[in-house]
Write a structure and sequence with these properties.
Blueprint: E1 4-7, H1 13-24, E2 28-33, H2 36-42, E3 51-55, H3 61-75, E4 80-83, E5 89-90, H4 98-126, E6 129-134, H5 147-167, E7 172-179, E8 193-194, H6 208-212, H7 223-234, E9 242-245, H8 247-266, H9 268-272
Parallel strand pairs: 1-2, 1-4, 2-3, 4-6, 5-8, 6-7, 7-9
The structure holds NADP nicotinamide-adenine-dinucleotide phosphate.
Length: 279
């Protein structure tokens, strides 16, 4: 059956790859972007009545409601919602202000909440739907200079797991995607927030810009191939709950999960030692 997709942050990188893959598979896509000019230019070569472009800054709740409304009015239902829009603000924790954290969480967490609040009533009424939340390796592992970005993605994963349990009875599936490094604008110096510190103690390490900017344009992950993998996952009767995209994601996260599992098993006795309240 032809699916109706709604993809946020669709004008570049992974979002654009997902849109193109879904269109290639014969599905219909509502591509949402905060800047209509960028959105139109991303899909300039595509002339299809299976593609609609809508304006959406995900941090604007009213725009999210309007965009979802427009999608349903135009195509009659909503099968797959991909929360993809996001930014990366990178720097040592002590260099990041509270407002840097707020700026990071605005699209990556609150933007997703806005879109889900608008989309879930539609899916619940349909008694069917699939939410795909684009997290990151940083949504399952924390590393230097990633405290704000990881905070946003860990929060997204927690939200996704809890939500999945609440909506499974309504026929709504939730997939968490943890990509490795994909070729996109995320680490473009004009796009990413590289926050430097003047705290001398951190001088021995590379700055956020020195650490992350070299990845820009050299990432091995192909957004279109990720899109094709998501099309396959969306076609499953029981879509995956978790999908690691890229061999680097698998190589990076396996040891993290194994270490966690080992910590749980090795300390079972100490963990149990806190049971029972002595009156
Ligand atoms: N590329 C990677 O290596 C990688 C790895 C793990 C996870 N991810 C995640 O993948 C997702 C897509 O990122 P990408 O790598 O494809 O980077 P990208 O090329 O920079 O795409 C990010 C998209 O999000 C949009 N966006 C940012 N803030 C927004 C807002 N407030 N409202 C609406 N749209 C907004 C951007 O729009 P503008 O063009 O208008 O700025 C852009 O379309 C992000 O959630 C990112 O965290 C990426």
């Amino acid at each position: 059956m032809n699916k109706i997709w709604f993809v946020t942050g669709a004008n570049s990188g992974i979002g654009a790859g997902i849109v193109k893959a879904a269109l290639d598979s014969g599905d219909t896509v509502v591509a949402a972007g905060r800047n209509m000019e960028r959105l139109q230019s991303a899909f300039a070569g595509i002339d299809s009545d299976r593609l609609a472009l809508v304006q959406l800054d995900v941090t604007d709740k009213t725009q999210a409601e309007r965009a979802i409304d427009d999608a349903v009015t135009r195509f009659g239902r909503l099968d797959v919602v991909v929360n993809n829009a996001g930014i990366a603000i990178l720097g040592y924790f002590e260099a990041l202000s509270t407002s840097d954290f707020e700026r990071q969480l605005a699209p990556n967490l609150y933007g997703v909440i806005n879109v889900l609040h608008a989309a879930l009533p539609v899916m619940r009424k349909q008694r069917a739907g699939h939410i795909i939340n684009i997290s990151s390796m940083a949504g399952a592992a924390g590393g230097k200079q990633g405290s704000a970005y990881s905070a946003s993605k860990f929060a997204l994963e927690g939200l996704s797991m809890a939500l999945a349990a609440e909506v499974e009875d309504f026929g709504i599936h939730v997939t968490i995607v943890e990509p490795g490094f994909f070729r996109s604008k995320l680490l473009d110096t004009s796009n990413a927030g590289f926050i430097d510190t003047d705290i001398g103690d951190y001088d021995t390490g590379a700055s956020a810009r020195e650490t992350w900017a070299p990845y820009d344009g050299t990432q091995n992950g192909d957004p279109l191939k990720l899109g094709k993998a998501l099309v396959k996952i969306a076609a499953m009767d029981e879509p995956l709950k978790l999908f690691l995209a890229g061999s680097d994601a698998v190589a990076g996260l396996l040891p993290v999960v194994e270490e966690r599992l080992k910590a749980i098993k090795d300390n079972r006795e100490l963990s149990s030692s806190t049971d029972g309240v002595d009156q």
